[in-house]
Amino acid sequence: MNKMESKNILLIGVGGQGIVLASEIMSEFFKRQGYDVKKSEVHGMAQRGGIVSSHVRIGKKVYSPMIEKGKADIMLSFEKMEALRWLYYVKPDGIIVSSNVKMVPPIVSTGAFEYPEDVEDRILKERPDAKILDIVSALKELGNDKVTNVIMIGALSTMFDFEPEKWLEVIKEAVPKKVVDVNIKAFNKGRELMKN
Amino acid sequence: MKVLLSGNEAIARGAYEYGCVFASAYPGTPSTEILENVQHYKEITCQWSPNEKVATEVAIGASFAGARALCAMKHVGVNVAADPLMTLTYIGVKGGFVLVSADDPGMHSSQNEQDNRNYAKFAKIPVLEPSDSQEAKDFVGKAFEISERFDTPVILRMTTRTSHGKGLVEIGDRVEVDVKGFERDFSKYVALPMNARKRRVVVAEREKKLKDFAEETDLNVIEDGKGNVGFITCGISYVHLKEVLPDAPVLKIGMPYPLPIKKIKEFVSRFEKVIVVEELDPFIEEQIKAEGIKVYGKEYFPEIGEFSPEIVRNALVKAGVLKEENKVKAEDKAIPRPPVFCPGCPHLGIFYALKKAKAKIVTGDIGCYTLAAIKPFEMMDTCVCMGASIGNAIGMEKALGSGKGIAAVIGDSTFIHSGLTGLVEAVYNKSTVTIVISDNSITAMTGGQPDARTGWNCEGEPTGKMDFELVARAIGVEHVYVVDPTKMDETYKIVKRELEADHLSLIISQGPCVLYPQKVKREKFYTELENCTACAMCSKIGCQAIYRTMEKTEKGRFKWNIDTTLCTGCGLCIQMCKFDAIRPISRKGE
Ligand code: SF4
Ligand code: SF4
Predict the structure, then answer these.
(1) Domain B346-510 of CATH type 3.40.50.970
(2) Residues B179-229: pLDDT tens digits?
(3) What's the DSSP call for residue B30?
(4) For residue A10, pLDDT beyond 60
């Protein structure tokens, strides 16, 4: 991708998955590369297990902090049913990356709804070019279930021409000292998963 | 240096740079982070107040003493603060006084979406509205200047997007502004009728001066562009418009009241047609039309809900400015994911008891516990505003002729905010309802701010801890009970007895929030699936850690399990299980 090209990056997931931190890291990274950055998310009830979405917009000059529906260039979904829900937000030629993690909403326990079993098939049927990453296995391998956000940043980094070291610089500053190592591994894992 | 700041962080930064020495607030989404960030600047004394009225009154006191003062609140908080504000407008200020109102178009986490620019017109004071974080910071400085120059309080109006959205902000150093000290001035500071009548005239003169100021200030700027349609816009609407129509000729209004009418007339005369783009009320549009100037606006734009770039685009298509694009359909292909109580939340036990005791009517209030209104509890029948639960319950009783089976549920922070006077009402007017304070000793909903019940203040210093039991007794409540909501039988018995009793009672249900001030650490529980008979009793307490498995009993019913990563060990579910299937984790492998 050319430097300073405008990009709309949409992050989607569930409260507690570290989406806000991921969007903070991205925003800081692009700021350091000289981009104008705006981002927005809605807090509030979301912290009680609701949907969390974060819009990150970069370019030479960015006005609105919100991505227009149907105009996201990149969607990173931390949960697969949420990917399905938000597919319509992505441009027809946009990049869709989803985790294969399944987080069943507690409302399912009331018997009022069922978590659809064929989520991945439905994503691929609508958007055959979507990439579904095996984050379930990756988290097991890394021995830490809190690093989906940095795996996703690793995945995002493959879509830009910046040195991985530059990304890692920001990640190292943003995460607590004792988990720096596992986050470096998570970042590399994200890059590796995108190659497959 | 440029840093990435949210609008709320930028306001805090602005308070710092522009010499603010005092800040107060009551937490409320989307305004909470303002004071949370002011807290990081040791030059500014800051405090959480029990409600927005008090927050405003202490900030007024600081201003009277000659200090630059700021108070912050969500839009509905301004209703609570309206009393002091509407007279402060007559009195004026000494040190600059800024009231930040963070509105919530779209009602992301509010009970209404009132447009608080209307307060400025109502109070005859200026309102400034930034469109991004940089302006949020800059406008704090301008607001202080205007406040001092024109002897007026100033409203700084934010919205959820400008408060929570982040952008790059050029930061600078603090400029100290001296605290001038208080000087007695009976005719100004004492709003007796004889003084207020004179001040009323001063307000009218001030408004005239502010109108002249509006014409010259760089808060209102014209940006030249292409085309024969011009736009007048303000706040977040400006950035959406520029996004959709980057070359649009724009008169950007940074001060929506009072408006620069001459500037607007001149701008309008340049174009075939001028459209006002503003979220929520036609606040600017109506003022312009009242001057006999022809503009368009709400013919194309919705008055309801939050704006987004696509809403602005669709309106511009309707106005014939843009051509229709392929519309994106947002059909929902996934199941809903409504917010839920945290696992082991102290509110669970008390709502379960109210449900089991078959409370007839539960009037509710504002906090995490409002979640009890939706599935799985559906045990909250009303929710109006902060503190309303108690008054509502009393009114129900008076109308229905009996208080039996009627309960009001309110949290500790909300009780301190506006429930105390309701309790006085209950005693004084001989109510017999059951009032429950679900007391987790923190303001949890907005992210765990301390309140007068917590035991420490905004700066983290230990301070007095309000004793609800003593307060209630002093007010005259005879039947006061303190319960532990994780002790199910005991809680149920007291709730049941008091609901049926012929007297007023106060039940204080005390248990720690599992998230704030820190995550609780208790032994977790697990399910011995072999013992589970699929009776589903544990699922009735509304804990999200408990889920239905795909494993069936011989009779073909699904068994239930505990997600031990989510469990916080409150021990409610174990009291529901008659088959020794739920056990503390230390018993695993026995
Ligand atoms: S002990 Fe039971 S009810 Fe309490 S948090 Fe754990 S699973 Fe939920
Ligand atoms: S934040 Fe605290 S009070 Fe709110 S739902 Fe969670 S445990 Fe309950």
Answers:
(1) yes
(2) 999 999 999 999 999 999 999 999 999 999 999 999 999 999 999 999 999
(3) T
(4) yes
Closest by Cβ to B341, choosing from A15, A48, A82: A48
Quote the ligand 1 centre to B522 CA distance (angstroms). 10
> Which ligand has an atom closest to residue B343 CA?
1
Cα dihedral B405, B410, B416, B421 in deg (nearest 10): -30
The answer to whether residues A62 and A37 touch, using CB atoms and an 8 Å cutoff, is yes
Q: What is the pLDDT of residue B511?
A: 97
pLDDT at A46: 52
Smallest CA–CA distance, residue B410 to chain A, in Å, is 18
pLDDT in tens, B360-390: 999 999 999 999 999 889 999 999 999 999 9
Q: What is the pTM of this model?
A: 0.96
Distance B543 CA to ligand 2 centre (A): 12
User: Which of B333, B440, B548 has the highest number of chain A CBs within 10 A, making it the mutation to test binding with A?
Assistant: B333
d(CA B417, CA B80): 10
Helix axes of A164-174 and A19-32: crossing angle, nearest 10 degrees: 130
Domain locations along chain A:
7-195
Judged against a pLDDT cut of 60, whether residue A1 lies above it is answered with no
- Per-residue confidence (pLDDT) for residue A3, from 0 to 100: 64
Cα–Cα distance measured from residue B11 to residue B68, given in angstroms and rounded to the nearest whole number: 14
Closest CA to B411 of B381, B453, B375: B453
β-pairing verdict for B558-562 and B546-552: antiparallel
pLDDT at residue B375, rounded to an integer = 85
Domain A7-195 is of which CATH architecture?
3-Layer(aba) Sandwich (3.40)
| A28-44 pLDDT, tens digit each | 999 999 999 999 986 55
Q: Do A14 and B165 touch (CB under 8 A)?
A: no
Burial of A123 (0-12, 13-18, 19+ CB in 10 A): buried
How would CATH label the architecture of B220-318? Answer: 3-Layer(aba) Sandwich (3.40)
Domains B2-216 and B525-587 share a fold: no
Cβ within 8 Å of residue B277, ≥6 positions away: B231, B232, B233, B237, B238, B240, B241, B297, B301, B312, B315
- B-chain residues within 8 Å CB-CB of A50? 337-339
Q: In order along chain B (590 residues), what is the average pLDDT of each group of 10 residues?
A: 97 98 97 97 97 98 98 98 98 98 95 98 98 98 98 98 97 97 98 98 98 98 97 98 97 98 98 98 98 98 97 96 84 85 96 98 97 92 98 98 98 98 98 98 94 94 97 98 98 98 98 94 96 94 91 93 94 97 91
Q: What single-letter amino acid sits at B440? A: N
C-alpha span between B76 and B505 (Å, rounded): 30
